Amino acid sequence: MNTARALLAAAVAACACASPAVAADYPDKPVKVIVAFTAGGTTDTLTRSMSNSLSKKLGQSFVVENKPGAGGNIGTEFVVRAAPDGHTLIVNSVGPIAVNSSLTKLSFDPLTDLIPMVQIATVPNVLVVPPSSPAKDIKSFLQYVKTASHLNYSSTGVGTSSHLSSYMLMDQLGVEATHVPYKGADAVNDLLAGRIDFMFATIPSVIGQIRAGKLRPLAVSTLQRSATLPDLPTIAESGYPGFDAGSWFGFFAPKGTPPVVVDTINREVNAALPALQAQMLSEGAEPVGGTPAQFAAFIRKEHDKWAALVRKFDPQAN
Question: C-alpha angle with apex 252: 250 to 256, nearest 5 degrees?
Answer without folding.
Answer: 160
